[in-house]
Design goal:
Blueprint: H1 3-23, H2 39-58
């Protein structure tokens, strides 16, 4: 692909992004907070993992 073709493609892409940003449809993900598990949910997951590992160890496995 020639340099001029790449330049035209890049310019078109920049124009598309400018239009999207101007319309306000694009938001940066940095502002979003990550969701967190409650203490009860973490305890439930940990208990399930312990049970799963106990079952694996009982079957003589050292990895799942």
């Amino acid at each position: 692909m020639s340099a001029s073709a790449r330049a035209r493609i890049a310019a078109a892409q920049r124009a598309r992004w400018a239009k999207v940003r101007k319309a306000g449809k694009y938001r940066k993900a940095a502002g979003k907070r990550r969701r967190t598990f409650s203490v009860a949910a973490k305890a439930k997951i940990a208990a399930a993992a312990r049970a799963r590992w106990a079952k694996a160890r009982a079957a003589g496995k050292n990895r799942l």
